[in-house]
Amino acid sequence: MIALSRRRPGSINLFAVVFLAAALVAFLDGMRDLPAFQNYMGQNVPDIVWTRDAAIVMLSARLSIALIPIAMVWLSAVRFARWMVTGLSLVKLLNLPEGHRFITGGGAGEPLVGAAWWAAMLLSLVAVALLFTPASNRWFAEKGEVGPAVFE
């Protein structure tokens, strides 16, 4: 783990903020309308009975899971985390047509998800871009190491 007192590049700090914001947007959107989230999950995972408690647990788990790559990047400069976040965001992009169908209701009535879905998608893509800036590349290359001439 890199010392908390160690200065991080602005792009790494911004990544942590933006990625956390994307996770919070999705979490708060689900919590705002739990019955709609239960309906959404029931359509995607019909084998589980999506009670109110199950929906809250799922939303909390998704938020907690989003904190893992933030910690891996911000605390430890783990290169794998950069590629993991990139890969997961690419999977989200591949699911974009399905997300659009959910948003527009697919011509079958009410939309299943709304603007928060788009906001979380956009924020996660911005977070990925921040992981590939020159300052971020140096952060991952150095892993936050202190030069031999620097003493704490």
In short:
With 152 residues, this protein is mainly alpha-helical. It is built from seven helices and no strands.
- Helix-strand pattern: HHHHHHH
**Which sheet architecture does the biggest sheet show?**
none
State the helical fraction.
over 70%
Whole-number tally of structural domains: 1
Low-confidence stretches: none
Write the layout of secondary structure elements.
Blueprint: H1 10-32, H2 34-44, H3 52-76, H4 79-94, H5 96-104, H6 115-130, H7 134-142
Descriptive account of the structure:
This protein has 152 residues and is an all-alpha fold. It has one domain (10-142). The protein contains 7 helices and no strands. Helix 1 (10-32) runs antiparallel to helix 3 (52-76), helix 2 (34-44) packs across helix 3 (52-76) and helix 4 packs antiparallel against helix 6.
